[in-house]
Amino acid sequence: MKKCLFALFSVVSFISMISCNNALSGNLSEVSEDLVASDLSDSARASSSTGYDESVFQKYEAEAASYGSLPTGTDSSASYVLLKGSGDGTITFSVSASTSTQAYLNIKAKGCGGEKTNTVLLNGSSIGTFVSPSEQWDTTYVETITLNAGTNTIMIAPWWGWIYVDYIELVSPYESEAGSESDSTSGSSETTLSQIYEAEAASYGNLSTGYDGSVSYVLLKGSSDGTISFNVSASASTQAYLNVKAKGCGGEKTNTVLLNGSSIGTFVTPAEQWDITYVATVTLNAGTNTIVISPYWGWIYVDYIELVTFGGSTTSDGTTSDSTSDGTTTNYSFVTTPCNANASTAAKNLMAEIGSNYGKKIITGQMDLTWNDSVDMDARVYNDTGKHPKLMGYDFLNYLDYQYGSGLSQVEEAIAWHNLGGYVTFCWHWRVTGSNGYNNFYSTSSSWDGTDFTIPYSNGSWNTSSSYYTQLINDMDTIAGYLKTLQEAGVPVLWRPLHEAAGGWFWWGNSGSEAFIALWKLMYERFTSYHGLNNLIWVWNGQSKSYYPGDDYVDIIGVDYYASARDYSSYSSKYYEAVNYCDNPGSAPKMVALTENGTIPSPGNCYADGAMWAWFMTWNDSNGSEGVSDSSSFWTGEYYNENWHKTEVYSSSYVITR
What we know:
Layout: H1 27-30, H2 32-38, H3 42-50, E1 59-61, E2 72-74, E3 79-83, E4 91-97, E5 101-111, E6 116-122, E7 125-132, E8 138-147, E9 150-160, E10 163-171, H4 173-178, H5 183-189, E11 194-198, E12 209-211, E13 216-220, E14 228-234, E15 238-248, E16 253-259, E17 262-269, E18 275-284, E19 287-297, E20 300-308, H6 345-357, E21 362-363, E22 365-367, H7 377-385, E23 391-395, H8 410-419, E24 423-427, E25 432-433, E26 439-440, E27 457-458, E28 461-462, H9 467-488, E29 493-496, H10 507-510, H11 513-530, E30 536-540, E31 556-561, H12 572-579, E32 591-597, H13 603-609, E33 616-618, H14 643-651, E34 655-656
Parallel strand pairs: 21-34, 22-23, 23-24, 24-29, 29-30, 30-31, 31-32, 32-33
Antiparallel strand pairs: 1-10, 2-3, 3-10, 4-9, 5-8, 5-10, 6-7, 6-9, 11-20, 12-13, 13-20, 14-19, 15-18, 15-20, 16-17, 16-19, 25-26, 27-28
């Protein structure tokens, strides 16, 4: 945590899209028939002339499927099977085809108590996920599938939340290609669309335009220079996913987006690199809507905005894909095995436990007050809520050169916590001494007494003869000894070193992303290969994709985010941005945790927004007295979290306590 500077980034990105019923008007509705026809693969086109099984194109009621002991019921408009938790069963439909046949797969369902995401398998293999809206029947397109000749199984399996399932529907793509119309086909075709709105066709006042050899653009400049305003017409109230294609001018930039005059969030554009960034899920009003890109922090080149309805599966050229517009796919399951092939059984079990609850429940976490042993943060949580956090955070802050009494029994406290049934995480505010003589974890860019220590790595290699390199190795070896004590005690550790690197306020981030990544990998190899520390689950918390060391070196992605006091929203934009940090967010995404927070997000809001953090970790109370509201006390008092909210969080069915 940056104690005196909470300048964390407001970044948004998203990989998993959610369906909606209504297509955008204008160009979107006009091209729907062409888009559906283009979804037909070459093999299906061949089948249309040589034969396909037309009998498969029908509705298959859930009550007629195999659903084990799952309950059934009827509401005012539909009969259903209730799909529940992961251990409660699945709904399996049998579909027979006389020959290989392609079809569009739709599912009619509604979420139970909130928006829900679940999985579909064809003949035992996952073909994607689909989202059911809260308490509202919706027919959702899932995928274009190929049925084998013979008997096929289509299974709806639980992943994230209970849903009522009415039926699945297989729709003919062959009829669509021939131009015939049916209620079912037209319904699904109009929901698989995207529309690009070029910046040059928008209203941009006196802003300049240009062409960089591959892309034409409008240059968004300073706050007094103007905005880029797009007009979007919709025939009815319509949900869509808003993406922006842009690149930063001379560095990473953050700017704002407004819908119909109200801010809907910010987005970050990488330096000198075209990138398509998810901004928000928007609801367009019937009629004309305005989407404005407004300057906030830095010049950017803007190519276009993109509105995607129904899962982002249709690209701007009319072709279809399982991928979102940034190239990631929506068919995925989060990685729940450690990246260290030699991980201990304890580490594997902890990773699996976290994974088994991911998307369903959030682990409660509280940071210990490392520099004041007289303050018991667990006791403060219990006094306010009657419950203990499941996860306690510890820090090697005072374990090296800076020893002033408190904070030197963190290892013993962690072992005791583990023995009580809790989880353990450690960070390391790593103090080093630079040439200016200051021993600190802060860099000179954030503190007058910060260290000017730089990572001795450049041009792809370490300066192993440097005194700085020797200091790094010696310090890592010292901390490895304490981690080994935890390993010998059977304690798996959620290990979160080198945090908040992209901010630059700590020395390990102040040397740039290349040097940081080299340091991360050096520590990983030193701890795992040299010291045999196999009890560590590696939690990366760099706060920017440019600082990500690679999937082979990271188990869980962490986000440190200090929201405004009493802001109990889900922080979903931070969550979805972090999902995209890893190398393969479409096929093998990493779990995401809120590794530091002040205000605690409402678990109910997290569940409703699909931002179920693996855990949250409320920061400590500095030196504040218990019960006193103060901006330096993140738990006690009511400055950040009101007492009713603390109790509600720790009593929620969406959290895990000790």
